[in-house]
Known about the structure:
Largest sheet: 7 strands, mixed
CATH topology of the largest domain: FAD/NAD(P)-binding domain
CATH class of the largest domain: Alpha Beta
CATH superfamily of the largest domain: FAD/NAD(P)-binding domain
Amino acid sequence: xxxxxxxxxxxxxxxxxxxxxxQLRQQHEVHLDVAIxxxxxxxxxQAAFTLVGGGAYKLEDTRRSEGELIPDGVTWIKxxxxxxxxxxxxxxxxxxxxxxxxxxxxxPGLQVNWAGIKGLKEYVGRYGVCSNYSPNTVxxxxxxxxxxxxxxxxxxxxxxxxxxxxGAPQKAVYLAADYLAKSGIRTHVDVxxxxxxxxxxxxxxxxxxxxxxxxxxxxxxxYNHNLVDIDGRKRKATFAITAGEQQGQTVTLDYDxxxxxxxxxxxxxxxxxxxxxxxxxxxxxxxxxxxxxxKNVFSLGDAAGTANSKTAAAVRKQxxxxxxNILHLINGGALEDAxxxxxxxxxxxxYGKVLMAEFIYGGKPxxxxxxxxxxxxxxxxxxxxxxxxxxxxxYMLKGKVSFPEHNTAYVxxxx
Length: 415
C-alpha cells in the first residue's frame, strides 16, 4: 500500500469539484496544493439532458474531456474513493493507495440506483423503457418520443426524493406533450405523469403554476405513485400507492413509452462513512457547509446533507462559500454562514417556454430577473438553452465567482 498527501483534497470532479478547485487556484495570497479524485474520463453538463431527451439539444454538446477541465496546477488522481477515515485525515482508493489531507471537500454527486426498481436495469434502453438520467440512455428517450403514434400510451415517472433537479421528470413530460401537439397527434396519444411525491413540485409558490401547466397539456398527474416493477416484454409498469385511501395497493399500467426517473442516493462509500448523516449524505452545517464534527471537512453539491434543491445552480452559490471558509481556516479567521439554500430549476414547459424557479431555504422565491417568476417565458428558454451552458463551461468551471445575485428581498404577489 502506498500513501500520498495533499493540502486540499477534493473528492469528485463534477460541477462542484471542478468549480471549487478552479476558485482555489484563483487565490494568490497563498500557494495551495490542491488535488481532485475522480475516475471519469468524461464530464457531462447534465442540466441539458432533458433537452437532449426532447430533441432540442445534442448529446455531444453536453460532453467535455475531464482532463481538459482540471484546472492548471491541480493534481488529478484518476481513481475511485472506497472509504473515508476522517479521524486520520485520509481516504482510501480502489488501487490500494491512501491519500491524506489537511482539508477535505466531499462532492461526488449522486448515485443513480438502476437496480432500485425491479426490471429497470434489465430493460432500460429497450422495450420502450427510457430515461434522461444517463448519457447512455437519454437519446433513446427522443427515439421513443418520435415513435409514438395515435392510440399509443406514454407514461412518465418520478422517483421519491432526493433526485437530481426535482423538476426534471416533469420537464420530460411537458416536452413530450408539446412535441406530440406540434406533430398533430397529441389528442390521440395518452400521456400521463405519475410521481412518488405528494405534490408536483416542492415549492408551493411554483407548484400552483405547474398544476396549471399540466392541465393545459391535458396530462393527468397521479401523486404518491412510486414505480416498483417493469415488465418490458409485456410493456407493463407497476406502481405502489404510498398515501391516501389506496395506500398499500398497487396499480399496473400498459405503456408504449415509459420514461423512468430512477431512485438516487449518496454514493455507497459516502453512506458507509463516518461523514454521513442518518440519510446517508455528508453531515454539514446548512449555511457554512462545514462538517458538523470534522471541522476540516466540507461538502457541497448533490452529496451534501443540505435541504436545498440538488442543481448546478446550488453549486454556483455553494462553491464560493466553501472556498472562502477553507481560506478562513487557513488564515485563522471565522467561518461565514453565507449559503442561503439557493437553488434554481429552469422548468421547461414546452419548446420555447421555461418557468424559471429560483428559491432559497424555506421555499422562498428569489428571482434574479425583475419579472414575475411564475410566468413561462421565451427569454427563459434562451437562458436555459444558451446562456446557462455558456455560464457553466466558460465561467463557473473556470472559477469565476461574480454571478448575478438573486433577489432575497422579493415579496410574493398576492394570490
